[in-house]
Amino acid sequence: MAKKLSVLLSIFLFTAGLNISIAGYVHATSIKNTQITIILQEFASLSGDEFSNEDIEYYIDDNVKDRRVAVLKAFFRKYDSPLYDHADFIVKVSDEYGLDYRLIPAISMQESTACKFIPHNSYNCWGWGIYGDKITRFGSYPEAIETIAKGLKKNYIDKGLTTPEQIMAKYTPSSNGSWARGVGHVLGVLE
User: Fold this and answer.
1) Three-state SS string across the chain, please?
2) Which pLDDT value is given to residue 25?
3) Which of 10, 21, 26, 113 is the most buried (most CB within 10 A)?
4) pLDDT digits over 104-130, tens only?
5) How far lies 87's CA from each of 30, 36, 105, 117, 162, in Å?
6) Could you tell me the residue ranges of all domains in the chain?
7) Residue 108 backbone zone (phi > 0: left; psi -120 to 50: alpha; other: beta)
């Protein structure tokens, strides 16, 4: 009888643990889907004419001679993103690693609405190394930008993964395609 109770208790505890795990997964998926919905709503408000030449020219002055920096500043200003102060660094690092300067901002928009929804004190706007309970934290935005650029180059671009769809297959394989569509849309807006 004691052995039977022990087996039943083990089965009960296993089942309870499994139910808790499933509930946690469903909850995490629900939160992620809510964030994706918010991000897609943000994207829906964008159009290809998001920034006029006047908007971009406003950011070109004695300190900003590169039109790409001006485009990023206008974009980040619209979304009140802390990346605004790092637009020139994003362009510089993108050039160093041979990346499209729009890729780092596009991924940040998809993953965190340009840093609006990130883990506390992480500086991680790209979902880089964030899964389950694991959170990769950086000491600053420049450190994060440098790490992301280097990682994108080494783990994606150098392996022939250059389109949003190809990058998505490895970066976030569970995506139903919305990740690639979102990144692709922002790439178009920043063009």
Assistant:
1) CHHHHHHHHHHHHHHHHHHHHHHHHHHHHHHHHHHHHHHHHHHHCCCCCCCCHHHHHHCCCCCCCCHHHHHHHHHHHHCCCHHHHHHHHHHHHHHHHCCCCCHHHHHHHHHHCCCCCCCCCCCCCCCCCCECCECCCCCCHHHHHHHHHHHHHHHCHHHCCCCHHHHHHHHCCCCCCHHHHHHHHHHHHHC
2) 54
3) 113
4) 999 999 999 999 999 999 999 999 998
5) 32, 24, 9, 19, 22
6) 1-45, 48-190
7) alpha
Q: Give the pLDDT of residue 23.
A: 58
One-letter amino acid for residue 172 of the chain? T
Tokens at residue 38, please?
């918010």
Overall residue count recorded for the chain in this entry: 191
Q: What's the CATH number for 48-190?
A: 1.10.530
